[in-house]
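#struct-help
A.M.: can someone run this one for me? Single chain, 216 residues.
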Amino acid sequence: MNPFISIIIPFFGAADKALLQRCVNSIHEQGMEEGSYEIIIATDSKETTGGARNNGMRQAQGEYILFVDVDDMLLPDTLLSCLPVLKQYVPDILKFDFLRFSGQFPARRDRLSESLLPYVEYPSGNDYMFSNNFLGVIWGHFFCRDYLEVNQVCFHETSYYDDEEFIAKAYFYSGKMIVTPWKGYAYYHSPSSLTQVSQKKSISCEYPLLKRCFFG
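D.P.: on it. Structure tokens below:
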């Protein structure tokens, strides 16, 4: 039986193995049934996050894909709280919120049942983009694997802005999209993280990349 969720963690080079173990532990501690999810530690010979994530997507067997950076974690009960929404409403994208931390890991909180999980449903990702400002970050989303494959949504492998390009394409091609303010992702705020390093690069390359998403 294939897993329902594939969780992809890019890991290569001089990345801290202790951080990887912390990240993986936060996933195993979600309380999910064995076999209902898989963890893919994705690598890339060129050591690009986009290449590693693409390799992870090619290996994925789950109906939904979730990306987690190696220095971040899932908050307790994230998967169990989102799973009923994914199974009942089958969105192309389920977007959830995050919190930042730089020291002690956030405390455990009460699990939300589906009936308590607040959300807004959009007919498409375009409808969401039209009416909301959004961050161009890859984490905090469940992506339906089938729709990503059909629309050939993947990461650019030579860009520091692979998150922004992927998110723009994913939203553009998405059908039903569900958005919840439920905080399920713990973003580790560190100057040495891959995300922080990327943000220090010149933003002059960002517009050409997004332009290429839609105009070739």
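A.M.: thanks! Residues 193-211 have pLDDT under 50 and may be disordered.
D.P.: also worth noting: The radius of gyration is 16 Å.
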